[in-house]
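Quick one from the shared queue. A colleague (R.T.) flagged Cell division ATP-binding protein FtsE as missing a structural entry in our internal table.

Convert sequence to structure tokens.
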Amino acid sequence: MIELNAAKVYPWHGQISEQVCKVMRMFGISVGTMRERGLRYELDLAIEPGQICYLSGPSGSGKSTLLRELYEATTEQKVRLEDIELSETQTLVDCIAGETTLGKLLTLSKAGLSDVFTVLNKPANLSEGQKYRYRLACAIAGDSQVIFADEFCSNLDRIGAAVIAHNIARFARRSKKIFVLAGARDDFLADLRPDVIVKIELGGRTEVIRREREAGDGRADR
């Protein structure tokens, strides 16, 4: 089990204009209240190996901020998708870690990259959606125990997102790696089956929902 903790406060430093004062009066708040409260993000989670945590909320709610704070606070071996470099000289199959060619191809397929022309292309030449899936494949193939991914499946269509979510769910249960994901979509949650959902509202308020793992979860993952 690992502990995920985040606490971040963004003080309000807005200029006190006539319009600002009118808005404050409309909502019954003072300058002191605004400066005292600001935006607060606080979260304490205990995550077991093989579990998935999904940070959900509308655009601007602070998902990326909270994900970054959780990443920086994690002491276990970790990787963040956005930090994975895109080679301009080697092909995908050369960049993915693995002992056999078949193993590398299977890893790429888990991330939705199975077309031969894509596999033999260079990461830097891929589309944005393919780059995201390539980085996901690299994270899966690596040694990191905790994988952080922002904007999870945000640039994929419904079917593509569902397939990758299903593959990640199976891989997490089998490998015992922990996934901490963030995104605004929820149409693939039935396939992702996250163990923990953190709902983030505008203003920083969070609600933690834990899902009881059903009997048979991971039964087909062997």
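The two ends are 22 Å apart (CA to CA).
The chain has one domain: 45-210.
Added to the table.
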